[in-house]
Amino acid sequence: MTSTSESIGILEEAQQRAKSLAERLGIERAVLSAPMTGTAGPELVAAVSAAGGLGVLPTGGMTASEIEKAAEKIRSLTDKPFAIQIRIPPKAAHRPQDLHELAEGLAEVLKGLRLPDPLSPEGEAFYDFASTREHETFDERFKAILAAKPAAVISTSGGFREPEAEALFDARIMNIGTATTLREAKVLRAAKADAIICQGAEAAGPRSNFEDSDEVLTGLMSLVPAAARATRLPVIAAGGISEGTQACGALLAGASGVMAGTAFLSTRESLASPYVRNVLIWTTAAHLTLTRLYTGRLVRALRSPLLDALQDYEPRLPAWPAPEALMGPLTEAARRQGREELEAVYLGQSAGRSSWRTAREAVEALSKYF
User: Fold this and answer.
1) Which of 24, 48, 67, 172 falls between 20 and 30 A from 126, CA-CA?
2) What is d(CA 244, CA 86) in angstroms, rounded to the nearest whole number?
3) Same domain? 183 vs 118
4) Which domain holds residue 328?
5) Which pLDDT score is estimated for 315?
6) What gap in Å lies between CA 51 and CA 68, rounded to an integer?
7) pLDDT (tens digit, 9 = 90+) per residue, 11-61?
């Protein structure tokens, strides 16, 4: 049996790891907000940072100019450090024909949302099926991120190549990668990452896997200690963390900090729609499902009439990111137009366990024990 003094020693070690990571990032509390595209805007990023944590700006779908403007907005709201996320462009290229069946099944829905037919010339130009824009603009967007001088840059769906890693090192910007497995954590260490976000199976997603299948659903309590031991790098636990006790548990398992997404959705600074805010009141893990329909990768999402109607298409979906090129514009248009039954709601396993009114409340609650 572990003695009281040993237990206290383990807790103090965890608290020291959190303190060291916070000091390295120039923040007070080792709590990061997840880069949630569509819901984590400059206001939420700034509010998390102002509360002593590290707000993370997502850049999915943004141009270099939009990144610059978002960073300027954050700096106008707070003088505290913040981070910026960027996705490593996918290697796979797809054509509209790869989504022929799904496009036909969604024809009336797309028409109702006033979106072009994916199989038409207009649709081929509108939907980025081959991720051409993401590939062609990566260097430009990365330069815009460097110019913004964030405290850290977070890569998802892979690690940075040597030129980007060296640029971050020269700029004294922390290079943080995202891993879903122990193997990926080791790859990120070899790619000169300074810290690693361990995305557990409990997370909303999308899964940020790049070496292993998204079906390797490793939970935080298995992934965090293994990654911390193997890499000797600071590990940030992400996935299903919405309370201080869960954050403390992650630190005791070997993490140096935590990242939360769903826990921030209810705050007044988030861009969550009224529908999502209502969902957060009553939803539990039982209302969620794992699906590839939205992106081609597993996400944990609220069950909906749209998902139910498209269930038969899932086994024949092309690989990520092809479905995202079609479903992304669809679900965004649904959100703008108030079509609740079509809205994509990604939630972690602890959905419904917190209802923080402000980002400050959430940061303080999550860091209560460290």
Assistant:
1) 67
2) 28
3) no
4) 95-129+284-346
5) 83
6) 23
7) 889 999 999 999 999 999 999 999 999 999 999 999 999 999 999 999 998
Q: Which two tokens stand for residue 30?
A: 């080792």
Structure confidence by residue, pLDDT tens digits, 311-341: 888 888 888 888 898 999 999 999 899 898 8
Residues 212 and 124 in one domain: no
Residue 275 counted as domain residue: no
Residue 29 class from Cβ within 10 Å (0-12 exposed, 13-18 middle, 19+ buried)?
buried
